[in-house]
């Protein structure tokens, strides 16, 4: 390019679609507008391209084979999305018993599920998930009593003044609050 010409810039969605051979943002917008006009519906909707999900999972596995992703089911529990993630080797972050049961129903082994709910009901220990989080001594004792073979991860709230956004989560152990169990 010469010094006077300007290289066309793609929007972020166009870059993603272009990188994965999916056309352009404008192409998808035209398809969406056409569909809306045909349906004449006032209901809210969203567009999910499972091809992008597949490509992203493949990219993840190729570039980070030693890191197992855990998809947070509460973000989007659409059955087609979950089935696609199952087929491509994702593990799952399930915050409720119903989320755990929906993932188990897809044939996922309990060892591919983490149950990070900070206040687990006693009845939830029976679902067979062997990885969970805790943020208090009382929670450790409850888990050890109900599900002794369960592996535990501590939820730590590490100070980070440089973070753009502070996560407001009272269900984490502050680094300064250490107490032996």
Automatic annotation (TrEMBL):
One of its GO terms (biological process) is putrescine biosynthetic process from arginine, via ornithine. Its cofactor is pyridoxal 5'-phosphate. InterPro entries: De-COase2_N, Orn/DAP/Arg_de-COase, Orn_de-COase, PLP-binding_barrel. One of its GO terms (molecular function) is ornithine decarboxylase activity. GO terms for cellular component: cytoplasm. Belongs to the Orn/Lys/Arg decarboxylase class-II family. This is Putative ornithine decarboxylase. It comes from Rosa chinensis.
